[in-house]
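Invent a record, attention on tokens:
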Amino acid sequence: MPKTRFNSSDVRAMVRDLRGLALGLRVLNVYDVDSKTYLIKLANPGQEGGNKLVLLLESGIRFHSTRFDRDKADMPSGFSMKLRKHVRAKRLEDISQLGRDRVVDFRFGSGENCNHIILEMYAGGNIVLTDKNYEILALLRTHKFEEGVVTAVKELYPIEHATTLVQAAGERAEAAPGTLSAASCPEEAMVWLERYVAEASAQEAEAGEGAKKKDKKKFTLKVALQSGGASDLAQYGADVITHVLLAAGLEPGRKLVSGAGGGLERDECASLVRSFSEALRVYDSLDAPGQNGLILCNGTVTMDDGSKRPKYDDVVPVALLQHAAVAEQLSFGSFDEAVDEFFAKAEEQRLASSADSAEQSIKNRVEKIRADQEQRLVALEAAQGEKRGRASGAALCESL
């Protein structure tokens, strides 16, 4: 299934690219494409023909610069008007990722006139406008992180709750007790996996048979390592976790079972723990500027004009081990360029695929009707033959 939203490593790479492109540019205007998508037009007014850039923010999904034109709302929304009031004519001074989570802080202006636009790309997503002290001025949706911690107008934005880990690049946070990390020994990893299966099984049993199918736990190695708070790898996202497992020689979809190690042997757990350092290496490598972006393709799609194009399946800032098997990879000058191309063409391809599916559905329906009519015709002919036979028999009896 094609990528639909950013993961943690995507956020890291995009912050890197946009810092090189957009910092120092001044906001000319803000537009809304729809209720979740906003365009911030930036430029350097002091230079004739200088830098111009359009920054796209989509709540819960993505952020990047874009060269594609998009239809804008005829009348700006109330939220757009708030953004215009507070950030128009201000310079974009900083872009930063909060910890390693899918939260980005855009800082406009400096000193007393500073404002922040915070983009959340997890759960339901959000775009939050704050003042210099992070007091919320406007936002797309109000929600609670936990009891007593509310994201709402006039409240302080809860940075410590919005992100899982705040630390500088290259620093290794000390894992909480009971957390599976690079510092764990193989025996601790075995105990951790056994406990994970036991606790997940107990939660599933407590939910009972009435629990929705989609809520049922899949006891796989990858899912276990994605469990936030209990695994040090969870903060890096699914792509990096898959890479780490393959580096350890383990299948991400391997099913865990009750008992010691969840079914993994001691040497497998040792290999897993050794590979944890690979996550930090990959993540920190994303900070180096000047890297290409990749679009991974899967087959082809037929466009409206009958031409065939590669079917975009994923866009990534770095080739990981799981991407080695992808036959066609398109390289772009930056991750920002690749993302802009991917999401613009993915929408086009979705429409073309929908048209193909609709056409095939109509063909299948016509074929079904034709087959049904043929069956009815055969049945009618059979019934007609039977009646003729009876009529002939009756006529013969009458003549006798």
Observations:
- The longest strand covers residues 293-302.
